[in-house]
Amino acid sequence: MARTLFDKIWDAHRVSTPKSDEASGEDLIAIDRVFLHERTGSVALESLMASGREPIDPTRVFCTMDHIVSTDEGRGRNDARTPGGEVFITATRAAAQKTGINLIDVDSADQGIVHVISPELGIAQPGLTLVCPDSHTCSQGALGAAAWGIGSTDAEHAMATGTLRLKRPPQMRIRVNGTLADGITAKDLILHIIGTLGADGAKRCAVEFCGEAVEALGVEARLTLCNMAVEFAAFTAIIAPDETTFDYLEGRRFAPKADDWDAALAYWRTLISDADATFDFEHVFDAKEIGHMITWGTSPGQAGRLDGTADASDYMGLKAGEVIEGLPIGGAFIGSCTNARISDLRAAAKILRGRKVADGVTAICVPGSMAVRRDAEAEGIDQIFRDAGFEWGEAGCAFCFYAGGRTFAPGTRVVSSTNRNFEGRQGPNVRTHLASPAVVAASAVAGKIAAPGNPSP
Ligand SMILES: CC(C)[C@H](C(=O)O)[C@@H](O)C(=O)O
Ligand code: SF4
């Protein structure tokens, strides 16, 4: 029977369908990797230890510090950005050391946001199952892994048993034909898709992105695309691994080596949906219709073209029919697991070179990992950001979400390269507009929402 890519990974990991689960349709699925972070992973680790159990294979469990850790340059990395949050860091460290899992601590050269460092270190690989108590784990499907977000209790279970019990999700295929116009990015593409299908448009499906425009994306851009799948209610997202994926992974720390690499490649090449595989839902988009996108509301589905108009939104301070381009801003943020990789920083630096952030705009860039930060510094990109008037941070989630601590002033309109624009997401009454790093940079310079081709005031 013809199978999808997701089916193939599922079937290869199906340990059994326990008798008690026949009616529920649940399968017992082998879990290859568990990733944790200090915000929710600490809870799972502590609870596991409290129950007298330990990870069945600690070498397959990874943990980073990203959510709570301070990202202010020069500040101690053991400091928290959330008042009183140090305990997350110390408790996670203690539990990780005790259980012997792979800990990527605050002072590690590998430290960074979980969904940035997992691909970077070659931990996410085609054909693997990977879970993490974090909703944006769907990002890692960009490598051809079945990767999804879970709760802390499931993380505990996955660590203890190497399995999870769950029902195979329905499946959706989103094909993007044609070529994206110059300067139009994966962020614009995903905002266009979510804006068209709505914030619940993916119907809890495992979504396979495919088509010419998706194949043309580099791995970093594919990560951006898959990152926001959960923002339109997907179970997860996946992209068939191809030469782009293999080139990206070769030589990375946890990628297979020598003969194992050849064997892995042979297997990975089978990971494509069969030509006659069927999906529960299918959508087709045309890449050439997509322009610079931005959200205007408080749901990621409230997205439109930058030169379009908004609906009324009290929270966002917008009237129906108001033109989005040109709205004055007070903040600009480039960071997060969506758009803080080296290609994102390069795109922004291209716009910022030789320019200055407009008066009255607080502009901050926080690289997604310390490796990205080092790469950027080696290329002089940090200097371009600093010269333009951007603050340059150390790696972490930073201003992507607010959990107390430093943020933008209430009422500030912020253009942000992140993935969530809910009320209060970036701070009390902060108004978040989601966009690509290029749009954030252009807007920072213009002091108002602006397209990259047109950054001057
Ligand atoms: C804190 C964590 C559980 C949360 C998530 O699951 O996504 C966070 O990363 C977010 O982006 O809101
Ligand atoms: S960067 Fe933002 S979206 Fe990503 S894991 Fe951190 S808080 Fe969640």
From TrEMBL:
<dbReference type="InterPro" id="IPR050067">
    <property type="entry name" value="IPM_dehydratase_rel_enz"/>
</dbReference>
<keyword id="KW-0100">Branched-chain amino acid biosynthesis</keyword>
<keyword id="KW-0004">4Fe-4S</keyword>
<keyword id="KW-0028">Amino-acid biosynthesis</keyword>
<dbReference type="Pfam" id="PF00330">
    <property type="entry name" value="Aconitase"/>
</dbReference>
<keyword id="KW-0456">Lyase</keyword>
<dbReference type="InterPro" id="IPR018136">
    <property type="entry name" value="Aconitase_4Fe-4S_BS"/>
</dbReference>
<dbReference type="InterPro" id="IPR001030">
    <property type="entry name" value="Acoase/IPM_deHydtase_lsu_aba"/>
</dbReference>
<keyword id="KW-0479">Metal-binding</keyword>
<comment type="pathway">
    <text>Amino-acid biosynthesis; L-leucine biosynthesis; L-leucine from 3-methyl-2-oxobutanoate: step 2/4.</text>
</comment>
<keyword id="KW-0432">Leucine biosynthesis</keyword>
<feature type="domain" description="Aconitase/3-isopropylmalate dehydratase large subunit alpha/beta/alpha">
    <location>
        <begin position="7"/>
        <end position="447"/>
    </location>
</feature>
<protein>
    <recommendedName>
        <fullName>3-isopropylmalate dehydratase</fullName>
        <ecNumber>4.2.1.33</ecNumber>
    </recommendedName>
</protein>
<dbReference type="InterPro" id="IPR015931">
    <property type="entry name" value="Acnase/IPM_dHydase_lsu_aba_1/3"/>
</dbReference>
<comment type="subunit">
    <text>Heterodimer of LeuC and LeuD.</text>
</comment>
<comment type="function">
    <text>Catalyzes the isomerization between 2-isopropylmalate and 3-isopropylmalate, via the formation of 2-isopropylmaleate.</text>
</comment>
<keyword id="KW-0408">Iron</keyword>
<dbReference type="InterPro" id="IPR036008">
    <property type="entry name" value="Aconitase_4Fe-4S_dom"/>
</dbReference>
<keyword id="KW-0411">Iron-sulfur</keyword>
